[in-house]
Inverse folding.
């Protein structure tokens, strides 16, 4: 995102459909006068092995998020920031927002970014990339470690969105 509302330009988290349902309910309860976009319907015959079903749901969830992120009032909701920038469960997000944790919303987002979390399959890809870079005689390192902008949780950015 290019929104100044977000601490990080990119983040990578995995969310289940039920977590999107939770987010929509919380956003709606805090912004009663706003008509929130609908989530894609939850079909009783949804099949994770059917690429068409998965892609249709993914597109619907993407459209939901894009519409939510266009509303300034919704952007002020801490749950939205935690949902998009941490891997906290809905219960942990609620506890954080209500002040029942030792960490603040900003702390949670910063901690998740600093942990440089990756998912197991992405760890393997990263190891392969590292081995390739280590064997490249022209590669160099500053020794300063990754910057916040270089932490992407293994997500690939589209060429149009990459900054130089």
């Amino acid at each position: 995102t290019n929104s100044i509302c977000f601490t990080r330009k990119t983040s990578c988290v995995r969310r289940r459909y039920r977590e999107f349902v939770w987010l929509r309910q919380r956003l709606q309860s805090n912004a009663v006068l706003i008509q929130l976009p609908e989530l894609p319907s939850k079909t009783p015959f949804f099949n994770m092995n059917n690429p068409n079903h998965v892609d249709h749901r993914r597109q619907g969830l993407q459209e939901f998020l894009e519409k939510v992120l266009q509303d300034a009032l919704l952007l002020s909701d801490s749950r939205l920031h935690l949902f998009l920038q941490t891997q906290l469960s809905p219960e942990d997000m609620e506890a954080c927002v209500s002040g029942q944790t030792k960490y603040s919303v900003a702390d949670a987002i910063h901690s998740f970014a600093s942990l440089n979390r990756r998912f197991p399959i992405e760890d393997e890809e990263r190891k392969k990339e590292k081995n390739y870079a280590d064997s490249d005689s022209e590669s160099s390192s500053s020794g300063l470690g990754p910057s916040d902008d270089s932490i992407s949780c293994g997500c690939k950015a589209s060429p149009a969105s990459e900054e130089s």
